Amino acid sequence: MTSARPTLEKVAARAGVSRATVSRVVNGSTHVNPEIRASVLRAVEELGYVPNLAARSLVTQRADSVALVFSEPPTRVFSDDPMFSDIIRGVSQEMEAADKHLVLMLAGSPRGRERVERYTTARHVDGVIVASMHGADPLPTALARRGVPVVCSGRPLVHAGLPCVDMENAGGAEQAVRHLVAAGRRRIATIAGPQDMVAGIDRLTGYRTALRDSDRRSIVAVGDFTRESGVVAMRQLLRDDPALDAVFAANDMMALGALQVLRRSGRRVPDDVAVVGFDDVPAASYAEPPLTTVRQPVYEMGRELGRLVLALAAGGDADGPVILPTELVVRESA
């Protein structure tokens, strides 16, 4: 026969304090004498007391959890692209340090968005991070209007004024293409990212800015940040301009697809065609040849997103977008 579950009253009796004092300690209040706090925590451990989280949330008005929402289908989030896992790792690190739970949710469809909105506005979480947004994604504004603290990963196409953490996308792309121009490449193509995402738009802008003052023309194909779309786009570029001698891909997954096509078409990299990517995923340094790319601190972005949403959930402010720097990493492919 098992013993009854320990209660606040039993912990209070063991520690020799009131039930209210035990409640303040287990709910994280700092207004408790350190010696009394130690006595209560010792009683909690001895009795094996586990707080009733539902009752605790009613008292504290906190769920002690944060939702990380990807506006993508499961096949995209759980693909071989490490960008998603890096963001999750970074956010998780901050949640663990703050003793909060992380709830992963997908909103890649209208039904998914409705489910996320119902769950988060019912106060099951203290704040929401929305990542990988496409177009005029209605979710961030819908949540903010309902009073939910919202932080966006990447600058939203709309919803001006919502706090966000973004990368120096245009500047990083411009630096990559200027590197190709400086190397004497004449026909520099790009595999742009999706044009309903700010990262795709900004990196195409950076590419065009780098070519604007030169006598080189833009040669553009558009992908969707997957390796498969890089394959398709590279084939298109070779058909459109067989004499191209450089490619800037808006992410490494598409660059890896481009390398595959170039290799199969008999083009030597970098002798015939130089290739530059964007991200610096682990596979970039193991590509054949190793990929020149623009490094962006995705894990650090996740941590910054976590810190920002926790600050907002605690009643703090967010001053303007946080823009993280990028860095060109030169390897053998360019």
Share of helical residues: 40-55%
CATH C-level label of the largest domain: Alpha Beta
Per DSSP, what share of the residues sits in E-state strands of 2 or more residues? 15-25%
Largest sheet: 6 strands, parallel
Can you tell me the number of structural domains? Answer: 3
Structural category is alpha/beta
Per CATH, what is the topology of the largest domain? Rossmann fold
Distance between the termini: 71 Å
| Low-pLDDT stretches | none
Mean pLDDT: 89
Cα radius of gyration in angstroms: 25 Å
What's the CATH architecture of the largest domain? 3-Layer(aba) Sandwich
The order of strands across the largest sheet is 2-1-3-4-5-11
What is the CATH superfamily of the largest domain? Response regulator
List the helices and strands in order. Answer: HHHHEHHEHEHEEHEHEHEHEEHEE
Shape field: elongated
Tally of helical segments? 13
The total beta strand count reads 12
Domain HTH lacI-type: 6-60
GO molecular function: DNA binding
InterPro entries: HTH_LacI, LacI/GalR-like_sensor, Lambda_DNA-bd_dom_sf, Peripla_BP_I
Protein name: LacI family DNA-binding transcriptional regulator
